[in-house]
Amino acid sequence: MTEDKKKYRTATALQYEGKHAPTITAKGHGDLADDIIAVAREHGVLVHQDDQLSQLLSQLQLGDQIPPELYIVIAELIAFSYVLQGKFPENWHNIHQRIDLKS
Fold first, then answer.
1. What's the CATH code of the domain at 48?
2. Which terminus of the chain, N or C, has fewer Cβ atoms within 10 Å?
3. How far apart are CA 94 and CA 103, in angstroms?
4. In 10 A of CB 37, how many CB atoms?
5. Digit-coded pLDDT (tens) for 59-103
6. Strands 10-15 and 23-29, how do they pair?
7. What's the whole-model pTM score?
8. CA nearest 68: which of 21, 102, 1, 103?
9. Enclosing domain of residue 12
10. Cα torsion for 8, 31, 36, 71, to the nearest 10°?
11. Does the keyword Endoplasmic reticulum apply (predicted)?
């Protein structure tokens, strides 16, 4: 990656505990962003890359909860990450048989 590209790379980490809106727990640019992503991956945290979402999240401060305008997109990302990990709600039914639960 060129120095120019690295300089503008951003990362924002969210923590969600299920009772309140997700909270900003880490954020950074350049090398710090790369470190945040590396630590997340080392701990099995799924990483989503989206320049527009990253730009919006980078405007928030550490400890801030995400604003209501981002609830749906963040909820969809959390739900999708659960599916990728093979986690489903207790009463979930695969009525359309679109997800192979045997893999």
1. 3.40.1690.10
2. C
3. 14
4. 17
5. 999 999 999 999 999 999 988 888 888 887 776 665 555 556 565
6. antiparallel
7. 0.72
8. 21
9. 3-67
10. -10
11. no
